[in-house]
Specification:
Layout: E1 2-7, H1 13-25, E2 29-34, E3 50-53, H2 54-58, H3 62-82, H4 88-118, H5 124-130, E4 139-142, H6 148-160, E5 167-169, H7 172-183
Parallel strand pairs: 1-2, 1-4, 2-3, 4-5
Helix pairs in contact: 3-4, 5-6
Length: about 180
C-alpha cells in the first residue's frame, strides 16, 4: 500500500514519524510531504520513508524564481560590486542584515502567502510531479490543519483525471478499520 502523509505544518511531526514507520513495518511505501526539511531536523524517519519538500518543488515555478532573483540574487550582486576594497566588511554586515531582516521576512510573510493563496491552490500538479509513482496513492493521511487545502486539491486532481480517489484520514489510527475492510 502506498501512503501519502501531508505534514506541511510540522506541528504534529512525531505523529508523522511514528505513523510512517508503522506503514513501513506493515509492508507499505510511505511518502511524507513536508514544507521544509529544516523544521524536521530533529525527527528521524525510517530509511524506507521518502521525504519530499514542498518548498523545493515550488522553487521551480516561475513566480518563485522571479522572487528569488529580485529579493536575493540581484541585491547580492549589488552588494558584491559595492563591497570591494575598504568597504568590504561594512557591506558584508549590511548584506547579512538585508537577507535576514528584510528578504527572508518578505519571502516568508508576503511572497509565499500570496503565492500559495494564488498559484498554490493549483500546486497539486507540482506535488504530483514531485512524488514517486506519478502521485497515485491508496491512502492520504492529513497530519495537520495546514495540509487540508493540499489534500482537497489532490483529491480534486484525482477526480479530474478520472482516477479512483484514495481514502483520506487524519491519522493512521483512523484509517486502520478502513484498511482492514478493504483488504479483507
Amino acid at each position: 500500500m502506498q501512503v501519502l502523509f501531508l505534514a506541511l505544518g510540522a506541528n504534529r511531526a512525531q505523529a508523522a514519524v511514528v505513523d510512517s514507520a508503522q506503514v513501513v513495518a506493515d509492508g507499505g511505501r510511505p511518502v511524507v510531504l513536508v514544507d521544509q526539511r529544516a523544521s524536521w531536523r530533529r525527527m528521524k524517519f525510517d530509511p524506507a520513508v521518502k521525504v519530499v519538500e514542498l518548498s523545493r518543488l515550488e522553487a521551480t515555478r516561475l513566480p518563485v524564481r522571479i522572487e528569488r532573483f529580485l529579493l536575493h540574487r540581484a541585491p547580492r550582486k549589488v552588494f558584491r560590486a559595492v563591497g570591494r576594497g575598504p568597504l568590504r566588511t561594512g557591506v558584508e554586515k549590511v548584506s547579512g542584515t538585508y537577507e535576514a531582516r528584510f528578504a527572508d521576512r518578505v519571502h516568508r510573510r508576503l511572497v509565499m502567502l500570496l503565492y500559495r493563496a494564488g498559484w498554490g491552490e493549483r500546486s497539486h500538479s507540482v506535488i504530483r510531479g514531485g512524488l514517486p509513482g506519478d502521485g497515485i496513492f491508496d491512502l492520504i493521511v492529513v497530519v495537520d490543519p495546514a495540509s487540508m487545502p493540499y489534500a482537497a486539491g489532490l483529491i480534486a486532481d484525482y477526480e479530474a483525471r478520472g482516477l479512483s480517489v484514495p481514502r483520506v484520514a487524519f491519522g493512521l489510527d483512523y484509517a486502520a478499520s478502513a484498511v482492514g475492510a478493504d483488504d479483507a
